[in-house]
Amino acid sequence: MCQADYKTKFEWPMRTKDVLLFVHWLIHVRNLKGGTVNSYLSGVRQLHIMKGMDEPNLRPEIVKMVIKGKVHKDKGDIPSMTGDTRLPMTRELMKVLKDKIIAWDQTWNDKMLVWTVCTLAFHGAFRIHELLCKTESFFDPHYSLLTENVTISSDRQGKRTIHVKLNCPKEQRNGKSVIVDIFESGCSICPIKAFTRWTARQVPTTGMPLFRQQNGTPLTGKKLNSILDTLMSEEAKKGNGTITTHSFRICIASELGTLGFEDEEVMAAGRWSSRAFEGYMRTPRTKRASIAKKIAELGGRRKRNTKN
Fold it and tell me: Partner of 172 at 20 to 30 A CA spacing, among 25, 89, 144, 308?
């Protein structure tokens, strides 16, 4: 039924993109819970064995994250259960935020600065002080994100990737740098589109914090929280919570559990596409990039089937 609904045919043994499509069908068409989805995958595993095939890897990291997100959703409003009222930033809220920033009574440069930071925070699931300074009057070059710490490259197809080098990320205990790769989506909330438009008008200065306001002072996490409180107060009330810079980071499980698998949603997953600067991460960057491209292809297939 899944193959008929999506007008496709699975290959055996099943590839990651087919598993993701099947999981999406179970969640969004059959409306099954996360635990039931796991049971179906166990059945598919047995089917492979019955066909005489080697035991397949039906639960790579990205599939685990999707199911985990669905399990969290099945449990209900987890933030309120723990006393945390911070709402996750969704794609829909990002589009609302974009409209609010456009109508915001500030200079074009500062509008684009805020929007650029928000898109990067959303797609990379950054801790906000990995991107922004803690104070306006002082910055530590060993911890702050400087202009030279962010670069852009293009693949053979012309798809661009932003590389954000974090010198001292919180999760690292060995002092090694980490590079977070943010892939181009081409959608209305594309981080590379925002970043290149902003840097075309306000060229950052080498040796200084990357994200500075038009008057030269660094944009801080505290200042961005204040801006979000002003712009998104109505949306926060609707959700009976708050929207802060941490909302960008806690969106990962929510997005994977409730949305499909288009390119921007994969990027919203956060650090699964990150790489350690000197091979620290267990999963090689090349493998994670390959997974991201497969998910992007799957998203394209979903769009074509919708048109049909």
Answer: 89
Query: Are residues 50 and 153 located together in one domain of the fold?
Result: no
Q: What are phi and psi of 159, to 5 degrees?
A: -75, 130
Q: Where are the alpha helices (DSSP H) in 106-220?
A: 108-124, 128-131, 191-201
Task: Give the SS3 label for residue 191.
Answer: helix
In a domain, 72, yes or no: no
pTM of the predicted model as reported, rounded to 2 decimal places? 0.61
Strands annotated E in 205-255? none
Query: What's the pLDDT tens digit per position in 176-203?
Result: 788 888 888 888 889 999 999 999 988 8
Instruction: Kindly state whether residue 156 falls inside one of the protein's structural domains.
Output: yes
Percent of all residues in the chain with a pLDDT value above 70, rounded to a whole number: 75
**Residue for token digits 């181009």?**
184
- Say yes or no: 95 and 230 in one domain: yes
Q: How far from chain centre, in Å, is Cα 209? A: 23
Q: Is 22 exposed, middle or buried (0-12, 13-18, 19+ CB in 10 A)?
A: buried
Q: Where does a domain end: 36, 59, 82?
A: 59
Q: What is the DSSP letter of 168?
A: S
The token pair that represents 37 in the structure block = 């989805």
Q: Kindly state whether residue 29 falls inside one of the protein's structural domains.
A: yes
